[in-house]
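It is worth pausing here to work through a concrete case rather than discussing structure prediction in the abstract. The textbook approach is simple: state the sequence, then state the predicted structure, then interpret. We follow exactly that order.
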Amino acid sequence: MTPHDLVPRTPAGRLAVLAIIASGAVGFGVARLTEHPEIPPQAAAGSAKPVLYWYDPMTPSQHFDRPGKSPFMDMQLVPKYADEAGAATSPGVAIDAGELQRLGARIVTVEQGSLSSGTTATGNIDFNQRDVAIIQTRSGGFVQRVYARAPGDIIAAGAPIADVLVPEWAGAQAEYLAVRRIGDPALTRAARERMALLGMSPGQLAAIDRDGRTHNVTTISSPVGGVIKTLGVRAGMTVGQGMTLAEVDGLSTVWLNAAVPEAIAGRLRVGSVTTATLAAFPGETFKGRITAILPEADATSRTLTVRIELPNKGGRLRPGMFATVSLSDGARDALLVPSEAVIRTGTRTLVMLAGDGGRFRPAEVRTGVESGDKTEILAGLQTGERIVASGQFLIDSEASLSGIAARPIGGDARPAGKAAPGPVASSAKAAAPTYQTTGVIEAIDAGSVTFSHQPVPALGWPAMTMAFHVADPAIIRGYKRGETVRFAFDQPNDNPTLRSMSREAGK
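Step two, the predicted structure:
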């Protein structure tokens, strides 16, 4: 019988033979795998990529040494291959240029720039309490006339309030005129001093000398122009010496009391220029200056009151009016990144670093003031490093799935384009982060500078006076005590060290 005679001649017979052959091959393969259980499936399949570990894509930080089902989710573990992890010295997720273009990613460079931060607040117009006149009588007498005044009336400076008859003045003035006719200088001088002690003004004494007759009725006038706050005088009433007849609030300047969040109130300075707008005068702006930042905060709204003094030409600004004011703490140098590049997770703040070879890695940063489309970086980055300004959320998601850890603040940050440190430098401690603030020089010598400085939010420091070590005497050359400066420092070995200093604009 030949092999040709063993082949079935019908289609059904041929299918039966193929099934038998296939089942035998499967059995042989299973037996081979059973004989070598230590060989992973990837190696059995002929994979040329060595597997570093397996992980659950939903929990990428947890690594497993064998494949199987995830203990966290109902899904198979995913292998991480060696060529996907990258070199140990260059951590990050690799993304090719084409994929970056599809993501719409934009790479920018961290740079030093001028930051002009400010905020907008609302407030109410109030009287300038430093411009209040208390109008009193200098001598007792009788009110002969009032001038139809009432509380709330607006009067000009020098406007009369009341005419008061002072009987005591008549005798003193008659005595003075009699002594003056005698011609005794000593008696004349004594009589004139007596009239002044009775409350007569220099103008009234001059009128007596000029007219040669008594003036026992005096007109009491307002020394300032403004609004009559209180009025306690009526015709025919008797008044005593030192009695208050009226109170007048001046209107030449007014206060704008603005409520500012306490988080930013520490950056404002007395003397800063502000701009206010009012609904009552659309299209107009009113410039003023901060005269005080009141020391007490509102416990309910967590705001501080900033007092701004506004010129009030023509008396158009009336107390009680509502105003919006723009506050600024001036321009200063800062490390800046686009605000859209910052990723806020709720527990920390990240940016996506762009490294060489298309590798990306998240880096933790500490942010400061945000102004316009720029955000200040207090720690975590250095000038010259490159970050992703758009599309960073998708790259960050890929890095999270790949288990890439974020670079911590004070980690291996160095300006882009500089060579990696050599064996000696790599063993040194990472450079300390740099912080910036504003202060007044209280004392200065070749080895240290003492500042009364503003708060440093990045370190949780309040405003205080302290000394900083000077690493390079050239930094302080030309500066003197009392100057207001912007300075940067770090803390190697917890020793605050001055690194740069510049004078504040306009100081």
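Step three, interpretation. Residues 36 and 44 are 10 Å apart (CA to CA). Residues 42-85 form one domain.
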